[in-house]
Amino acid sequence: MKKVFAMMLTATMSLSLAACGNSGQSTASATSPAATNPPAESSAQAPTPAPASGKSANDKLVVGFAQIGQESGWRDAETNDIQWYAARATDTVELHFADAQQKQENQIKAIRSFIEMGVDVIAFPPVVETGWEAVLTECQEAGIPVILVDRGIDANTDDSLYTTMIASDHVWAGEQAAIAMNDLLGGSGVVVELEGTVGASAAVQRKQGFDEYIAANCSGIEIVASQTGDFTRAQGKEVMESFLKTYDKIDGVFCHNDDMALGAIEAIKEAGLKPGEDIKIVGVDGVKGAFEAILAGEMNCTVECTPILANQIFDTAAKLKAGESVDKWIMSADEVYTADRVTADVVDGRAY
Ligand code: GYE
């Protein structure tokens, strides 16, 4: 795992350096979150002294981003996109980036530090759906608009506590995965489910979309087990191993993200079975690793959820700073990739 982080760090740093080289600036350094401790904060440019109180006295658009952590390739792609954007836009944008290392308390600490700094806009993907009232109320009292990114908060939370959400439709993704699974199994079979992080909207809603679609439309499909693999490849593999030991016959696995699907592929191979053939595999995200697996015949489908959100995040933040209103949900346009759509060109064209 450490090795992977180290490689990602290198990748992020070289991206940043390349960006700096292009702009001729040497101060820009969108430091990888891997290099920091929770809720460590790094700036996309030389630190600007924070105003004593209130909003930023800075002409630049000052954004605080409290990232969840590094649980998946998808998350790293999102982080890289945001840091790369900020590193190229140091004339107009100042990014303060924190890595909460999967902990809600660290995200809350980071958000509080952004309030203290008086940033213009705060953006973050809520690691879980609940427990945000207090800190969001503090943002509101400080007059700082909040953009939820890629995950939402619990529907019972007062939605005036955030300004907008930039995210995919996770219920739709679950439904699309169910449609694909039903097709792959010809309408009947035994299915297991690898869930994302417990309490995360991306997991709750993907499960809802999948389970409800199957219950309503696929009487021949039985979901015999559903367990969290926390959106990580390692836990996806572990949970799939235990499913394979428990159930004599599994026809399909729905994985709430591609990283867990890649872990499940390893477990299926180690059990002497053929992933993609003996057991059909449907994931969510659309990362390059999943496309490669589909091309190799070891995975069957991935429902895209784009991590390329930086443009929208900074454009929306600029509008909010200017006092403009924006939609409450800025929804990503995603696509379903079944094997017939995944050619070598599609794989090569995937940047993350
Ligand atoms: O699908 C998963 C990640 O919140 C949409 O989180 C995001 C999800 C994404 O770790 O891979």
What does this protein structure show overall?
This protein is an alpha/beta fold and 352 residues long. Residues 1-54 have low confidence and may be disordered. The protein folds into 2 domains: 25-167 and 307-331, Response regulator (Rossmann fold), CATH 3.40.50.2300; 170-305, Rossmann fold (3-Layer(aba) Sandwich), CATH 3.40.50.2300. It has 11 helices and 13 strands. Residues 71-72, 74-75, 125, 150-151, 202, 231, 257, 259, 284-285, 305 line the site of beta-D-fucofuranose. Beta-D-fucofuranose (GYE) is lined by residues 71-72, 74-75, 125, 150-151, 202, 231, 257, 259, 284-285, 305.
Could you give the topology of this structure?
Blueprint: H1 2-23, E1 41-43, E2 61-67, H2 73-88, E3 93-99, H3 104-117, E4 121-124, H4 133-141, E5 146-149, E6 164-167, H5 170-184, E7 189-195, H6 201-217, E8 221-228, H7 233-246, E9 252-255, H8 258-270, E10 280-285, H9 288-295, E11 301-304, H10 310-321, E12 329-331, E13 336-338, H11 344-349
Parallel strand pairs: 2-3, 2-4, 4-5, 5-6, 6-12, 7-8, 7-9, 9-10, 10-11
Antiparallel strand pairs: 1-3, 11-13
Helix pairs in contact: 1-2, 5-6, 7-8
Short characterization:
By secondary structure, this protein is α/β, with parallel strands linked by helices.
- Assembly type of the chains comes to single chain
Shape summary? elongated
Spatial order of the strands in the main sheet?
1-3-2-4-5-6-12
Portion of residues in helices? 40-55%
Structural class: alpha/beta
The helix count comes to 11
CATH architecture annotation of the largest domain: 3-Layer(aba) Sandwich
> Please, what is the CATH homologous superfamily of the largest domain?
Response regulator
The main pleated sheet reads as: 7 strands, mixed
Distinct bound molecules: beta-D-fucofuranose
How many domains would you count in the coordinates?
2
Distance linking N and C termini:
18 Å
